[in-house]
Structures are given as C-alpha cells and as structure tokens.
Amino acid sequence: MSASDSQGVAASLFRTCPSTGLEVHGPAERLIRAHAVVATVMLLVGGIAALLVLLTRWQVIHLLDAAWFYRILTVHGMNMLIFFIIFFEMAVLIFAGPLLLNCRMPAIKTAWGGFVLMVGGMLLVQWAMWTGNADVLFTSYVPLQAHSHFYLGVILFAVGTLVTVGIFFATLVVAKREKTYEGSVPLVTFGALTAAIIAVITLLHGAAIYIPTWLWSMGFMEVDAQVYRMVWWGLGHSSQQINVAAMVAIWYLLATLTVGGVVLNQKVSRIAFVLYILFISMASAHHLLVDPGFGSAWKVWNTSYFMYMAVLASMIHGFTVPAGVEMGMRLRGFTQGFFGWLKRAPWGDPGFSSLVLSVVVFGFVGGITGVTFGTEQINIIAHNTLRIPGHFHATVVSGTAMAFMGVTWYVIPLIFRKRIAFYPLVKIQPYLFAFGMLIFSLAMTFAGTFGAPRRLWDMTYSGAPFDVQYSPAMDIIIAVMAIGGLMGIAGGGIYIVSTVWSVFFGKPLPAGEEAKYADSIPAGLVKRPWTEVPETDEDPEAPGRFGAVPGTVVLVAIFFVAFIVYYFANWALLSFTWQVG
Amino acid sequence: MYENGIQPPKGVWWKPAHRAEKVWIAIAFAWCMILFAMMPIWHLRGGQNVSGIRHKVDPADFRERTNEFIEAYQVDEDRGMAIVEPPPGSDIYLLGMMWQWRPILRLQEGAEYILHLSSVDVNHGFNLHPFNINFQVVPGYDYGLRITPTEAGEFRIVCNEFCGVGHHMMVGRVEVVSAEESRWSGTDPGGPEAEPTDQAGGDR
Lengths: 581, 204
What we know:
The complex is a heterodimer. By secondary structure, chain A is an all-alpha fold. Helices cover about 70% and strands about 0% of the residues of chain A.
C-alpha cells in the first residue's frame, strides 16, 4: 500500500484539496445529508413510539389504551425497521459509492426524485397510521386490512429506494469507466454492494406482495393469508438482511477509521459477503416454521439458508472483523500478550466502542438466539413469544443501529464538517445504548421463555373469560426489561440531541485542524490511522501458538462455547413439553 | 501487505488465508452441518415436531366441522361455552375467531389426539400456557397436529398473534384429566379405533 493511494482516499474524505474535492462531492454530500436528516427524524418518531410502547407493556404504568397501543406499535415498527434504517442505508450507499471511490455521482436529479418518492411514500404511510387507518402492525397480515393509501405509501417508498440503489450501481460503473480507483473496489464498498443487491431482492418481494395487497384493499382481488405471510416475509426478513450486510460493511469501515484495522484476507471476507447474497433471502421461512402451509422439507431447507451457509458467513465476519482490528493494532506496535491490543484500544472513541458493542451484542445475543429460534422444532417454544423481539432488538438495535450510530460520529466531522456537540455525553452514549438494549433483549428473551406473548396490550388479560397466571418472576423480568429499554431510549435520545445540535447549530471544523479540536471529535479523526497501513513482510510476533491473531482466536472460542450451550439447552427445553407433531 | 477496508486492493488479492482463519472456517462449517443435521434427526428421534397433517380448508367448512365435533362430544358448559370431551385417538377441533377459542377441550393424560387448528377470520396464534407450545393459526388452512398431553391439569390457550383490539381477551381453556377420571376410561387409550368419530373427524 503506497502513500499516494491513501492520499486519494484521504482527499475524498477530508477535502484536503477543496477545489476539486468540493466540485466532485458536493451533490453526493447534499444527498447524504438529506437522507441522514430524514433518517434521524424517523428515529425520533420511532423512539417516542418505543417509549410509549414500553411504558404500556410495563404493566405497572400501562400507559396507552388498547387501540392506541397497537397503533403506536405499528408506528414504532414502520418508522424504525423501514424508514429510519432504509433512509440511513441510502446515505451509506452514497457514502460507499461516490465518496469512497472518489468519483462523481451520476444522475443527481433522478437521485433527488428517488428521495422525494421515498419521503412522499413515507408521509402517506404516516398519515394512514396516525389517523387509525392502519392498525395492522408492521406485518399487516392479510386479512387484517389497512386503508389502501398505507400499501400505496409503502410501494412509493420502495420505488424511491430502488431508484437510489440503481444510482449506486451506476456509480460503480462510472467509477470503473473513469478509472477513479485502481484495482478492485474497497471491501467496504463491496459490502455496501452486497447490501444493495439484497435490497433489490427484498424490494422485488415487496412489490410482489404490496401491489396485490393494495389491489385487495380496494376490492379488486383476493390475497391468501398464508401466501401473504410467505411473500411478505420475503420482504420483512430480507430487509433485515440488508441491515446485516450494511452493518458488517460498517464494521469494516469503523475498524479502519478508529484503529486502522486491516483486512486480514480479502478473499475470505468477500466470499462471506457473497454467501449473504446467495442464501440470506431464504430466511422468510424463519417466520413460517409453525405455519400450516408448508412441509417440513421446505421448512428445514429454507430456515437453514441452504445448510446454514449464511450463518457461516456471519461466523466468518465475526472472526475477520475483530481479527482485522487486532492485526491493525499489532502492526502499530500493540503486540503485548493476547489482549494488549484491546487494553490499549481507544475505548473513549464512540466509533470504536460502538463497533465493539455492536459486534459483541449482535453476535452473542442476536446471532445465537436467531439461529436457535430459527431451528424448525425449537421454534415451537419461541414463535410469537417475547423471545422473538428479544432476538431482533439485539440484532437490529444493538447491532445495526449501534453500528450506524457509531459511524455517525465520523460522518458529522467528515461530511458535515462540524464538531460534535455534547461530546462527553457522546462518549458514554454507546455504553448506555448497548447495555440498555442488551438488558432489554435478555429480559425479553427470558420472559418469552415463560411464554409471554409479543405484541400484547395487557398481560393480565382483563376481560378474558379465563385467568392466565405467569411465573411470579415475570413481574421482575418485565421491570428489568423496562429499565433496560429506558436506558436504551436515553442512549437514543443522546444520539438524536447531539446529532441534530451538531448538524444545525454545531461549531464548524476547519479542514486540517482536527488536532486542535480533539476534545470534540473522535480520536480516530485526529490520529487518522486509516491513511497508512504499516508495511511489513511478516506478521508481527504474537504470543501463544494460535497464529497471528491469538486474541481473536480466544474470543471466538468463547463465542462458540456460548453458542453450543444455548443451542442444546433449547433442545432440552423443547423435549420437556407435550409431544406434538 | 495488508489493505484496510477503504483502500482498493490492487493486483491479485486471491491469497491464501491465515491458518487461524482456515481453522475457524472449518469449525464453523462443521457446526453448520451439525445445526442442519439436528432437524432431520429430531424428526426421527424427537417427540416435538411441526409436520402435522396440513390441508386447505374453507373457513365455513371448518366452522361446520367444529360445530359437529362440539355436538358429538359436549359434556358440560362453562359460562355458555361448550366443554367437549372427545375419545382418545380422535380428531379434535379448535377454532380461533375474534376473540375466542372454541370449544373448551377436556383431554386425557397420555392419550394422543389429532388437534385441528384453524381460524374463521384473521390470523391467530395458538399458545398453550404454561407449556409455551406455539403454532400459527391461519384462516383457510387446517393444521392437524398429533398431540399428547403429558400431565393432568388446567391449561390455557392464549392468542399470541395480533388479531385486533380485543386480542388480549382471546383466552381459551384446556383441561387434562387422568385416565381414571376420563369419561372414556376403560376404552383403549390412544387407539385410533377407540370410538368411531363423527363425519367431521375424517380427515382427508
């Protein structure tokens, strides 16, 4: 790696050459800003909804009435899982395309057209939800029916998203043709490309289900309840796989930006991304394991993503990301012992702490529970219980959203050229958010193990003909869940306040003067460890006999043991219930 | 020797992986094969599966079968809701509708039944409380599950799929009685020919 290429990348990120830099990246940056700002507004709306839902499920407070609970739960799901995440991902695509490849952005007007479509569709959905015309929850299972504008809004949003994804593909062609980079695309761009391809697969499923459902809502055709569930989850689950791919790309990005992490092996990491594209869309089956419409062969084949090849991909990234960090640190002289590199890592840099917490919670809680509940028979003791939101809050919230938040602390100085407001609070934000969501997810998982249903307004079942008694521990578990949730919401609040304040009222950050403002921007931006990778012919010395990255080997070994224990404990739990089949 | 994540790798990047990486991939791959094998193995050896007997069904037909089933085996009622005690080994019906489960089932400990689940309106969720056995109940589909209650007692069926504003009121009841207490004691428990079932019981 020669110094000149890294200069190229650095220039595109830092505009050390403002005349050309501005000219080339201005339009792309404005688009990134627009998407990021809308994403943050969506996060705010979804976050307020989260608070209301939480304070209702916590029976001690039981804030909302039944109708508003389900309405706000719909708002929470749509704003978080669709609007916040996809607006953010579009910003990530524009970053990973024109900015990382240092090329111009093609079809800028069309890109704005896509953005307008997304916003228009989103507003239509918001109207339907807030006026009580779409009390159908995020999944909108037919034959529960919403106003036709709800489905139309989702369709418009999806078309807008497809436009932006298409422009990302066009950007890759432009960069290649205009030779703005030499060699292959960077790994982060490759990961974003993976996310973009999965997005296309996902959105095609979305079209395949929302267009018929829209027509159904106007009385033009019938939609089968089971077919809806299958095709809808082709959208619903696959859209979470866009998140996984985008999140992993951001893991590699944050590793690079915060500590100068390296790519241990391009081949391995890229193959793992390709496995995602090939197999991850089969996960629709995770939601249909105890459904009447499908046979066991279909269920086993699909729920396992073709014999767990997408799980293999995640396990590979779970190794290569920390290994890249470890190697990057060892190359810079942090070679002491197994974990000297971790001890000396910049834990006060919110980008780095977000990265570590995202990897750990996503892997240990989200990944392990997901694979376990996605097992055909184990799903009998997990389906539709709180174990399911327990799982996906660990993946989507303390995994994906945590990673997205972490990269924001770099985006604000790099793209918006602002210092970060309330930086001391921001330093603790990742810990508050991730630990809060960790407690929340674990408590939900426990509550679900005792059979507590998800999506339920009243766990005392008032008005039901028969009483339902839970274990006395349940009240405590729900209280712990509420405390964890409130911590997470507080962390989310710090994120929103700081990002909004920084962007709109923040103090400017003059290019090249990062070192002066080290107390209000992440440490990685001052040290810039990504501008150069130390040259070596041999890997640095490492203790033990586990090769060049012994610390990572120990960490994944701990992960593997936890995985095995949790997985087989669930088989044991299943074997105690009534015989069924 | 290394690039970072935002540098375009030049030349041939198809290089051999580190040994630790190769070993981890091999372990992960082997684990994936174990994960995959466990599901077919449980089909052969395990007592809890999801295969069932599955058919499409007209919701009106399913309601009709449930009514016939209730008529044939009703033994009592609880606040207007029928309590039904079908013979061991028979086809039994549970209908989900906004917002109740029909009927109340009285089953015999240790006996096998074929439990047919369906809905006449929207999706519902079958959650057998407190055992935490869960199945999706989809309108237009009959999910016939061979089920064996393993202990006597009072159980609940809680709906755990959102089905409208009265969702939380949708609680049903299952009683499991010992073989001696059963109305059918003396008949061959679990035998498929224990008692000729009604027309509705014939599952095709």
